[in-house]
Amino acid sequence: MRTIGISTGGGDCPGLNAVIRAVVKAAIVTHGWRVLGIEDSFDGLIWLQKSRELKLDDVSGLLSRGGTILGTTNCGNPFRYTVEENGRKRECDFSDQVIRNAMALELDGLIVAGGDGTMRISHQLAGKGLKIVGVPKTIDNDLAGTEIALGFDTALHTAMEAIDRIHSSAESHHRVMMVELMGREAGWIALEAGMASGADVILIPEIAFSLSKVCDAVLQRERAGKRFTIVAVAEGISLPPELQAEAKAYKVSSPSSVAKGATVVLRDAMERCTGKETRVTVLGHTQRGGAPSPFDRMLCTRMGVAAVDLVARNDFGKMVCVQQGRVTSVDISVAAGPPRRVDPQGELVRVARSVGVCFGD
Ligand code: F6P
Asked: Please, are residues 147 and 322 in contact by the beta-carbon 8 Å criterion?
């Protein structure tokens, strides 16, 4: 009987529990294997007390639950693990301990659901002999090697619904409403949620914009009798040069926010330039919560089963992926590579422009 491990790494997202369920069910029902849940990403292999057996009862009712029952972290790289000694922090390499503990747990395979950071660590650990299989998850949808990662579709639903609600308020108050969406250096959520909810302006990191072009779009709408404007802003935008000094002066409390307050700086500048009342809504971590969409539940189930199939074939060092709509796999090194970003010349941007969306360029 084989023993396999399952863990979830990086930022949480809807669908992680659905993957855990699919892996546990496929491993037990199809193969009669034993499954260990490894807690808090790779932390669970650094500290042995952070692993527990998962049986069918443990995954009952998980399909629709947001978050991850195994916990996760986006700052637990075993190659550069921060430890505190005598009040001082230093980085230690715990990767050998991870390999030793995987052997102590008699793991015949480890399935890891994660984003680019998790895939990079997995690739390094595979190089040290760990039998690892990745499952792509990230609401940002920027993971290389796959057309879609789990969690993205649900995040899009959440973002689209939020913008829909903001739409009616914008119209009632004749305001410019800016909605900041997550995505780090990729503009997928802003682009697709913006398009799906009829945003008038979409600002993404992949397309440089100017303040005057964005303000012109607002004023043109005003002249056409549309007294409100919806602006979907990706958190990773770079502000145009004329606003960068202002951005530097603006302090944000969250160190992980890539936006560094860019949306608020842009709001102030737009208000000055258009004379229109402008409000900002930062959707933040709401995009990572909630029950997964039907599409994500299906994707998680398909990907979880595909990951177990790879383990059954001893096909390690791979990440499950979707290519041309089919679930297949790629070498994990591909996923560890540069992120997948929006193509400014691609079909989606072209379609958006054709229906009058302004990208500020
Ligand atoms: O990668 C997922 C993500 O939600 C990004 O969109 C966002 O920039 C980041 O994680 C936020 O991380 P944290 O949870 O550490 O604030």
From this structure: yes
**Spatial contact of 167 and 232, defined as CB atoms under 8 Å apart:** no
Closest of 172, 183, 175 to residue 230, by C-alpha: 175
Ligand 1 first shell, C-beta below 6 A: 11, 74, 115, 138-140, 182-184, 235, 256, 258, 288
Place of tokens 């540069």: 338
Question: Which entry of 40, 116, 140, 200 is annotated as an active-site residue?
Answer: 140
What tokens were used for 313?
């074939």
Cα Rg, the chain, nearest whole Å: 22
Q: Average pLDDT for consecutive 10-residue bins of the chain (361 residues)?
A: 97 98 98 98 96 98 97 95 92 97 98 97 98 98 98 98 97 97 96 98 97 98 97 93 77 50 91 97 96 98 98 98 97 95 98 98 97
Report which secondary-structure segment, H or E, holds 263: helix 262-274
Atom of ligand 1 nearest to the CA of 115: 1
Report how far residue 71's alpha carbon sits from residue 268's, in angstroms, rounded to the nearest whole number.
39
Q: Which residue's CA is the closest to the ligand 1 atom numbered 11?
A: 256
Q: Please name the helix (run of DSSP H) or strand (run of DSSP E) that holds residue 264, with its range, or none.
A: helix 262-274
- Provide long-range contacts, Cβ within 8 A and 24+ apart, for 263-269: 263/178, 263/180, 263/233, 263/235, 263/237, 265/239, 266/178, 266/203, 266/211, 266/214, 266/233, 266/237, 266/239, 267/178, 269/211, 269/243
Mutate to test the pocket of ligand 1, among 12, 184, 204, 340 (most ligand atoms within 8 A of CB): 184
Distance CA 267, CA 284 (A): 17
How far is the first Cα of the chain from the last one, in angstroms, to the nearest whole number? 59
Candidates 130, 96, 121; CA nearest to 5 is 130
Q: Count other C-beta atoms under 10 Å from residue 23's C-beta.
A: 30
**Taking the model in full, what pTM does it have?**
0.95
The question of whether 315 is a catalytic residue gets the answer no
